[in-house]
């Protein structure tokens, strides 16, 4: 090899190099200081970001991030102080307004000074400053539903779509789930990334508007139960005004808490099993039906979720539905992380491959199903499918270990081969 090549490269790099600007230096320092935050080490992050905020000329963004870290630590007075400092600096303080909105939001905060009107005002100020602030638009959607303002709720979903706030993999996963569901399903979701992208796809792209997307976490709020009931003509076990009279009942034998969501879902489950519910009830794969008193072995697996059997139907696996769902998967659509760069949520950024991971695991599970039926060739096909998916979706190397484990487990033994 010609030893001059590396020398030429270094000289050219040196000739093109320019000293970083002060803004670049500050951005890099803030990124470094926030590393503990992304690992949920809020105390360590507070110390590092506070040190930056105390430097002369600290940016509004630094103060806004310090406010967010304080909010995560439940140090609300300090969080409010730093957020107001960011707002007072005169720059576009969208993030600071969003932090203040979350601080005052009664749905997110147990603070004595929580106030829905204050939260609403700050969220509106955030998007007025930065119309692409997806975190603020998500909060506006939730608060608009609480206010029964359908127009504002739909506007928030459209703005999320226009801003490109959800990643390609998040949209691909939610499209896959929606398009695989039985007609008119009630889809019980678990978090932000299996709820909001689905709602955006329904409204902005017309994907399966017949499906009622219901977030189980929000369902413990009486106003949300009333909202989805009105929007999708869903029955409730009690009138909305009486749902708040339900008190939480903790069940020792399980992690279930018999509260509003528990009782609403149980009423739908009973109606479906008795044939009184005309809409299929489906639990998303992202949730845990046992927390709502529903055992896994009492459900029909669809691959994309778990359906309550109708009257006279047996629980088990609907292999036709599973195979049809997996046939819809476009592996390359899952090559992006589950979040976009503009998403500041530490919760949503915790598992960057979560959407691809779910699809990958469904493929491995399908191989197990084939092996249980002694369909060894089928098991091998699904192992190969999962391998191709992992490569196209750029899953990390440890998924190869899962692939090998399943491959070893689904090979016929000498006894099976006889």
Verbal overview:
This protein is mainly α. The chain has 3 domains: 22-129, Serine Threonine Protein Phosphatase 5, Tetratricopeptide repeat (Alpha Horseshoe), CATH 1.25.40.10; 168-317, no CATH class; 331-417, no CATH class. The protein contains 20 helices and 8 strands. The strands form 2 sheets. Strands 2-1-5-7-6-8 form a 6-stranded mixed beta sheet. Strands 3-4 form a two-stranded antiparallel sheet. Helix 5 runs antiparallel to helix 6, helix 9 (134-146) packs antiparallel against helix 10 (150-163) and helix 18 (376-392) packs antiparallel against helix 19 (398-409). It starts with a helix and ends with a helix.
List the helices and strands and how they pair.
Elements: H1 4-16, H2 22-33, H3 35-38, H4 42-53, H5 60-72, H6 76-88, H7 94-104, H8 116-129, H9 134-146, H10 150-163, H11 168-180, E1 186-189, H12 196-205, E2 212-215, H13 222-232, H14 240-243, E3 249-250, E4 257-258, H15 260-273, E5 281-284, E6 300-301, E7 305-307, E8 316-317, H16 319-327, H17 354-372, H18 376-392, H19 398-409, H20 414-417
Parallel strand pairs: 1-2, 1-5, 6-8
Antiparallel strand pairs: 3-4, 5-7, 6-7
Summarize the structure.
This protein has 418 residues and is mainly alpha-helical.
* β-sheet strand percentage: 5-15%
Using the CA coordinates, give the radius of gyration. 25 Å
- The end-to-end span amounts to 57 Å
SSE-based structural type = mainly alpha
Roughly what percent helix?
55-70%
Number of discrete domains: 3
The biggest sheet amounts to: 6 strands, mixed
Sum up the overall morphology in one term.
globular
- Indicate the low-confidence ranges by residue numbers: 1-20
Q: Could you state the order of secondary-structure elements as H and E?
A: HHHHHHHHHHHEHEHHEEHEEEEHHHHH
- Spatial strand sequence of the major β-sheet: 2-1-5-7-6-8
Number of helices: 20
Beta-strand segment tally: 8
Q: On the 0-100 scale, what is the average pLDDT?
A: 91
């Amino acid at each position: 090899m010609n030893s001059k090549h590396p020398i030429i490269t270094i000289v050219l790099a040196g000739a093109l190099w320019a000293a970083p600007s002060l803004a670049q230096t500050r951005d890099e320092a803030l990124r470094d200081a926030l590393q503990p935050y992304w690992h949920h080490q809020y105390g360590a992050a507070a110390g590092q970001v506070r040190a930056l905020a105390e430097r002369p000329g600290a940016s509004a963004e630094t103060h806004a991030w310090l406010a967010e870290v304080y909010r995560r630590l439940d140090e609300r007075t300090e969080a409010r102080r730093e957020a107001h400092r960011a707002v007072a600096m005169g720059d576009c303080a969208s993030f600071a307004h969003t932090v203040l909105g979350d601080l005052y939001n009664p749905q997110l905060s147990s603070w004595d000074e929580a106030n829905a009107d204050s939260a609403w005002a700050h969220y509106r100020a955030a998007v007025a400053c930065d119309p692409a602030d997806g975190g603020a638009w998500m909060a506006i959607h939730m608060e608009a539903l609480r206010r029964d303002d359908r127009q504002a709720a739909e506007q928030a979903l459209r703005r999320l779509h226009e801003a490109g706030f959800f990643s390609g993999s998040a949209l691909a996963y939610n499209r896959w789930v929606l398009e695989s569901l039985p007609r008119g399903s009630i889809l019980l979701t678990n978090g932000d990334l299996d709820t909001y992208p689905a709602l955006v796809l329904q409204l902005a792209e017309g994907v399966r508007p017949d499906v009622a997307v219901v977030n189980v976490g929000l369902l413990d709020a009486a106003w949300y139960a009333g909202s989805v009931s009105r929007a999708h003509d869903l029955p409730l076990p009690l009138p909305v005004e009486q749902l708040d009279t339900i008190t939480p009942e903790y069940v020792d034998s399980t992690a279930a808490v018999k509260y509003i969501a528990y009782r609403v879902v149980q009423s739908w489950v009973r109606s479906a099993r008795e044939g009184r519910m005309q809409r299929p009830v489906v639990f998303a794969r992202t949730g845990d039906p046992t927390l709502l008193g529903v055992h896994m072995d009492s459900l029909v697996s669809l691959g994309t979720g778990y359906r309550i059997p109708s009257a006279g139907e047996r629980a088990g696996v609907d292999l036709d539905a599973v195979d049809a769902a997996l046939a819809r998967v476009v592996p390359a659509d899952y090559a992006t992380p589950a979040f976009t760069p503009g998403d500041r949520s530490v919760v949503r950024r915790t598992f960057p491959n979560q959407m691809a991971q779910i699809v990958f695991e469904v493929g491995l599970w399908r191989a197990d199903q084939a092996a249980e039926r002694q369909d060894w060739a089928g098991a091998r096909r699904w192992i190969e499918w999962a391998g191709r998916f992992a490569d196209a979706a750029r899953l990390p190397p440890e998924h190869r270990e899962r692939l090998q484990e399943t491959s070893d487990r689904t090979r016929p033994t000498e006894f099976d081969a006889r």
